[in-house]
């Protein structure tokens, strides 16, 4: 029995390769996580265990996929960035998205008991959806990252105040919502401070800044590299010797993957870590 | 702090909605499963526990996503079919693919200890990639399903013979490969029977036919429905009353999701189950 | 000097092949034709010469591209239909669209002096834009064609009444518009008849129905063929012998290309001309 | 009669907007121009009238579409470049391609009698197909342009030698082809010089370099601008005041559109004309 009679159906597969020489961001989002958070009693406004579980899963994704240069997570979402020169899976969108989503989900379920030892998972299980977007210039990429971090800040300030009004102020959700309607950041800071003696600046960085995951090398002096301009002016394919590729691979494998809660909007973060934009591994930190 | 300055980055998201009025097949495949199977000592040529774990995960996916009408699995792959009228997630390809891949992975990891109680998972964890393909006509869809089942048959006959030569015949892999080179189905049947007294026809159906998962209603007499022609001639959007939709939803929820090992190439399977092509729920079987 | 250094830029071309086994409609529209019509003094509400020039260009397009099975034109737009089995240019969308748009434009400019002998073209010249849309089922395709013909009817009834109010009733554009605001078809018929003794039914068919262009064979008795169901149930690729293909090609080349003004919404038009949906050439009419 | 019943067919139109912040190149090619050139007796290896007709049509396209910043033509092909910030037609690919192809064709047919006064066009008429490709970085764009100009050089040197062997050397096509097989550029130069006393360097620039079309402003001193780096680092949308836009529009309209035959591979061409990459109009030359 030959299979050829039916094999014509393969023609219906349509290519979805992402435009070369662009930054690829794969963002994943928890599906129905409001309900999921309620089911497992996540703390409000932030559940530290849940965030650390997200970070552990993201770290595992980066360890399995060295082509990812940086990831940023907040709440139940995570964005993974492939360098513009990346050719993994021939840049097929569905393959990049599904691999990240699947790997992330596997670790999320697997590590669950570590972070929630007392509440085992039961169906319906947590799941994530994902999409890929590509950005031509470094500025576009950084604006994307800034967009997510500003969103983190706006939502966290709102949620912190909203839940303070409820948990400490005794309001119900409707009253709290009404109180916050039309307020600016300064108003919310004022409510927190004057009513509840909470200085928002002293809130944990993981809540205010989200989490950024990357391979760590020795930081450089700002002003000594121009990785952004170099990256922008690139034409692919980049020609590198096999020896160079091998050296890069080894240094990347040695570099620790860290989870930090830093400002990624200002230049400083990027200036000190030129490898994020250049894709050239830096020096392995001595203490590691 | 307004987020508007960065929000322009949303413009870079490109729509990926699948053409309306076509059948959508999402196929997922295990990533690096040869290595994975070795790590956990999967039996050769087929590991019943591994297949049943795949089937359990597929069943769970169908239970969570009632828009899926039928699924077919073999080895470490599974194909899920959305009816041509389906509008779930506005038919966005990345959303359909990532949701299925993530849900499947979550159950695969979660159910692992049920099927492999003695070998706990450890990193790197199992993961799957996926892609969506769309088919305009019923014939195209059925040819796709036939293609996968023929593939199952071809591979299983080969693997059964290959491993018999090794496990029962004492050959090494190279010898077995050489022995099978250029042989036809009849030759392999003959090798199995004359050398090892194995009648391939008596092998378990799950290995020979793969697994088909669907909602089960009372089968109808072949020839009494013409669901294929009806489905082909459809123009979407289908206009149904809310009452009808609600009734359909309830009947679908009541229908048991079954896993069978049947021939899906011949007409009979489809003729007896018109709901698979019509998307109109049938009668709930009395015994359930 | 080798060209290889720069040839990598070819990788940036992204495939745009249209899904197999679907009907492809390429619709072209005149660019800025309101202004263009004013410049050349087109008659209102319909300019017979301009419509016949459109039809002549469409006829020429069909003669140069035998893969087109039917075309429908109204005002400054024309829709060309490729059969679902068509593989011209590997179904690349930009190639199909640009070829039709270019060929149409060439004939429009070339035939201009035949239809407008006294007003030679001068820059800016007439031009057209185009797009391709694909339809999975015969019903979808016929609904598309019906959509365009209903649009023709609605616009022509409006325009006929609007210009009667101005040209015969002495109104200015604002008064005419106000008079017609909120009126139904019956109202417009009544205005035409009672005020201007115009029976809309007696208006020329080319204005009321638009123009349909196709290869003409001997019509068949309605009910004797079921081309729609056959077309819908097709799986591609269609296997035909070379001899059959050659015979088809010859009969198609012999068939006259006609321009008619018929109802293409009702079944009758399609029932009598099964070759439009089956793509199998009919009998050459004897009188030709 | 309402049209709503059929209007659902509009849903089948799929968006084809090109990724923002990338350079868009629309390349058009003559369809079947070998045959066409024979029909109208084009001179070999180059027909000056035919090339000038192409250039006249390209110039007209640029005059009608001010969003095009530069165009490059050789033989029967032309590439038109839209600046990376261009938002014409919402960057819809089919609209950009079809508009350029149609406008070009209209002028080609319209201007034909100016360049070929003695040989009127007759069906089948000349036509062009087209496609859009997008390039993220200035280097990618310049490499694309270089690719086309190197192609021009390679083909012209080959054709010049090939036709010299035939027209001056008395060979037939087969002999000429055989003579050139495996030769390098230096060999062809030598054949031209030693056998026919032709110094290839003295051949007309239009044949050796092709034609580059652009808006001309006063050239600047190389080294005084860095338009490439500025363009690469851009994030869109570019925020410009209405007044600035209006000023730009006027200066662009005043700038003469020139057709030159220059080296566009080296930096000098681009360094002297920063407006090509920056999209900021320069100074209008005084002599104009």
UniProtKB/TrEMBL annotation, chains A, B, C, D:
<comment type="similarity">
    <text>Belongs to the tRNA(His) guanylyltransferase family.</text>
</comment>
<keyword id="KW-0548">Nucleotidyltransferase</keyword>
<protein>
    <recommendedName>
        <fullName>tRNA(His) guanylyltransferase</fullName>
        <ecNumber>2.7.7.79</ecNumber>
    </recommendedName>
</protein>
<feature type="region of interest" description="Disordered">
    <location>
        <begin position="228"/>
        <end position="253"/>
    </location>
</feature>
<keyword id="KW-0479">Metal-binding</keyword>
<feature type="domain" description="tRNAHis guanylyltransferase catalytic">
    <location>
        <begin position="6"/>
        <end position="136"/>
    </location>
</feature>
<keyword id="KW-0460">Magnesium</keyword>
<feature type="binding site">
    <location>
        <position position="76"/>
    </location>
    <ligand>
        <name>Mg(2+) 2</name>
    </ligand>
</feature>
<keyword id="KW-0808">Transferase</keyword>
<feature type="binding site">
    <location>
        <position position="30"/>
    </location>
    <ligand>
        <name>Mg(2+) 1</name>
    </ligand>
</feature>
<dbReference type="GO" id="GO:0006400">
    <property type="term" value="P:tRNA modification"/>
</dbReference>
<dbReference type="GO" id="GO:0008193">
    <property type="term" value="F:tRNA guanylyltransferase activity"/>
</dbReference>
<feature type="binding site">
    <location>
        <position position="29"/>
    </location>
    <ligand>
        <name>Mg(2+) 1</name>
    </ligand>
</feature>
<dbReference type="InterPro" id="IPR025845">
    <property type="entry name" value="Thg1_C_dom"/>
</dbReference>
<feature type="binding site">
    <location>
        <position position="29"/>
    </location>
    <ligand>
        <name>Mg(2+) 2</name>
    </ligand>
</feature>
<dbReference type="GO" id="GO:0000287">
    <property type="term" value="F:magnesium ion binding"/>
</dbReference>
<dbReference type="InterPro" id="IPR007537">
    <property type="entry name" value="tRNAHis_GuaTrfase_Thg1"/>
</dbReference>
<keyword id="KW-0819">tRNA processing</keyword>
<dbReference type="InterPro" id="IPR038469">
    <property type="entry name" value="tRNAHis_GuaTrfase_Thg1_sf"/>
</dbReference>
<dbReference type="GO" id="GO:0005525">
    <property type="term" value="F:GTP binding"/>
</dbReference>
<dbReference type="InterPro" id="IPR024956">
    <property type="entry name" value="tRNAHis_GuaTrfase_cat"/>
</dbReference>
<keyword id="KW-0547">Nucleotide-binding</keyword>
<feature type="binding site">
    <location>
        <begin position="75"/>
        <end position="76"/>
    </location>
    <ligand>
        <name>GTP</name>
    </ligand>
</feature>
<comment type="function">
    <text>Adds a GMP to the 5'-end of tRNA(His) after transcription and RNase P cleavage.</text>
</comment>
<dbReference type="Pfam" id="PF14413">
    <property type="entry name" value="Thg1C"/>
</dbReference>
<dbReference type="Pfam" id="PF04446">
    <property type="entry name" value="Thg1"/>
</dbReference>
<keyword id="KW-0342">GTP-binding</keyword>
<feature type="domain" description="Thg1 C-terminal">
    <location>
        <begin position="139"/>
        <end position="266"/>
    </location>
</feature>
<feature type="binding site">
    <location>
        <position position="76"/>
    </location>
    <ligand>
        <name>Mg(2+) 1</name>
    </ligand>
</feature>
């Amino acid at each position: 029995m030959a299979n050829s009679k039916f094999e014509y159906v393969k023609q219906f597969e349509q290519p979805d390769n992402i435009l070369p020489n662009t930054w690829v961001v794969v963002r994943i989002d928890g599906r129905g996580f409001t309900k999921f958070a309620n089911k497992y009693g996540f703390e409000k406004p932030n559940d530290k265990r849940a965030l650390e579980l997200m970070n552990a899963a993201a770290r595992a994704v980066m360890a399995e996929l060295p082509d990812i240069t940086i990831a940023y997570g907040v709440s139940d979402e995570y964005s993974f960035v492939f360098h513009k020169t990346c050719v993994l899976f021939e840049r097929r969108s569905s393959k990049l998205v599904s691999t990240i989503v699947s790997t992330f989900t596997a670790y999320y379920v697997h590590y669950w008991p570590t972070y929630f030892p007392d509440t085992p998972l039961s169906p319906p299980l947590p799941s994530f959806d994902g999409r890929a977007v590509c950005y031509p210039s470094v500025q576009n990429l950084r604006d994307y990252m800034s967009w997510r971090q500003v969103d983190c800040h706006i939502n966290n300030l709102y949620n912190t105040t909203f839940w303070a009004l409820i948990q400490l102020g005794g309001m119900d959700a409707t009253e709290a919502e009404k109180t916050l309607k039309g307020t600016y950041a300064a108003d919310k800071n004022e409510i927190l401070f004057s009513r509840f003696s909470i200085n928002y600046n002293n809130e944990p960085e993981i809540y205010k800044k989200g989490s950024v995951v990357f391979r760590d090398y020795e930081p450089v002096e700002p002003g000594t590299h121009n990785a952004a301009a170099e990256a922008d002016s690139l034409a692919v394919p980049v020609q590198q010797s096999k020896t160079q590729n091998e050296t890069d691979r080894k240094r990347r494998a040695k570099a620790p993957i860290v989870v930090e809660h830093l400002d990624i909007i200002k230049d400083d973060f990027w200036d000190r870590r030129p490898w994020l934009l250049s894709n050239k591994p830096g020096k392995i930190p001595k203490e590691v």
